[in-house]
Model the fold of this input.
Amino acid sequence: MVKIDNLGSDASQLTSIILDDGSVLTVTLIFRAAILRWCMDIAWPGPAAAPFASPFQIFGINLCVSPNILRPWRDVLPFGIGCTAKDGVDPVDVTDFDQDRVQLYVLNESDVSEVERAIYGGPS
Done:
């Protein structure tokens, strides 16, 4: 599990993360002031070892405190994204990442399996 530690208080942020297989995950975060929510878009070109894989994109995921926000795609993606908050409250302020109240983590494949086993009681 690796913390995404380059987030600030800009209402629109883009960051790229190199995954364990060498592929690059692009995460776009957008703060929606009218509803006091952070939303996330992700784009992943597929595994680095499969250069002709179809890209995978998800738009408009509402961020919330979760061990794996990408759990619905756990059988498709070799990674996940966890979200924690020091006070347990979902990300609702533009300064949440800048003030380190909220943290985002990239989970590798074994982290996703561990979350499934430990939290959801699934196979590891």
Q: What stands out?
A: The chain has a mean pLDDT of 94. DSSP finds one helix and seven strands in the chain. Helices lie at 109-118. The beta strands are 2-3, 12-18, 24-32, 37-44, 56-62, 80-85, 102-107.
